Amino acid sequence: MTIDHAAERPTYTPSEAARYAGFSTQSVARWRAGYTYPTQRGPRRSEPLTSGQTHGLLTFNELVEVAVVAAARRADVSMKSIRAALGVARDLYDVDRPLVTLRFKHDGKDIFIQEIERASEARYVNLSRHGQIAWDHIRDVLRDLDYEEDVAVRWWPVGRDTPIVIDPRVSFGRPYVASKGVSTDAIRSRFVARESIDDIVDDFDLTEEEVEAALRFELPAAA
Q1: If we measure between CA atoms, which residue out of 63, 75, 69 comes closest to residue 109?
Q2: Buried b / exposed e across 90-119, counting CB within 10 Å, b at 16+?
Q3: What counts of helices (H) and strands (E) characterise the chain?
Q4: What's the pLDDT at 85?
Q5: What is the pTM for the complete model shown?
């Protein structure tokens, strides 16, 4: 499994990563840096869930890690289960960044990874229960990630039905409209400068639906 160097380029602010993942900036900061909390036996340390820097800009790989954790939390998977899954994945599969290189699944309580897939059978290992085998009732948390050779390379942050995608190899990693490679930020800037949607459609050779999708993504409060 080879991770493209573009995926390790610092690109996204913590607030951008939080907005794309649909979670709070404070949560993203805690997942990146870890935190200390009190117990009856004294302070304990929760280590970072991401594998990159603990401050500054996030890389695409860190963005994927944040997106996976956010998806699991929205599915009511506990932080304890997430941490257990990561620990077991690192031990079982000898990988440093399991959230980037493995296809995680969930059933609402635990986290699974697809180990093999055949035409008639899919087997999953339950990482948060130390290797128990689970079966085909598991729904894919990462349905909006594209993989190449089992490495996450592309993310559809608002779902595959919306033409917005993030690929570290395209548009310097900025979110863009899939059909033309036009960054959503460029569309937002033109709209904020009081250009009409019709003019933006003509200038970028996009459809009205694509421009409106980009604006909903960049300006959710105005959607």
Answers
A1: 75
A2: eebeeeebbbbbbbbbbbeebbbbbeeeee
A3: 8, 12
A4: 86
A5: 0.86
